[in-house]
Amino acid sequence: MALLLIIYLAFISLGLPDGVLGSIWPVMRTSLDLPLYAAGLVGAIGSIGTVISALSSYRLTRRFGTGKVTLVSVLLTALALLGFSVSSSLFALMLCSIPLGLGAGSVDSALNNYVALHYKARHMNWLHSFWGLGASSGPAVMGLVLSLDLSYRMGYRILGGMQLVLVLALFLSLSLWQDGKSRTEGETEVTTFPPVHPRKGALPFALLGFFLYCALEISTGMWAVSYLVEVKG
Asked: Alpha helices, DSSP H only, in 65-120?
């Protein structure tokens, strides 16, 4: 149960940074005197890092274990957020986006796989609910910080500090991870279903649909606030 709680917290931390840049960009770009489109460059670098780390997740998890991969991933995210808090140029923001993206991809794949192998299906639903909680909390923290007349940099420091607390919790829980075992103690065996063979030619449409879904989600999260501020006032 303790490990499951840690996993839930890890998914909250995974969601924390996701909506922050878009929600705070009108304030950041004014403070740093950056063009509106610069957010797209910062976000694109983070997305590339996420894809690279997600594709490497299987090999990393097999070699080091889910616990260590999660620990390092959250640490990278924490350092990236703290880096955002002290960045004063577009180059620095782009540089900090690299560990932010690398930290997001591996932990997402690794934890999804771990929960699927070791826990009942209902825990997967809760897992992604906690991601939504984190994704909603990040902009909320930033909004609270700004409402107190504090700098957005303080908001990034708070989020980075929250991630560092989780890093400590993950470090203390390393002995609880059970990579290589089929299930966690107290859970029933996972039911094995026959393989599903999609119709020929269906996979490209599935990939296209997922691509469009991600594009809509990321674009809305990145630009909705800027649109409301710049266009609607």
From this structure: 66-86, 90-118
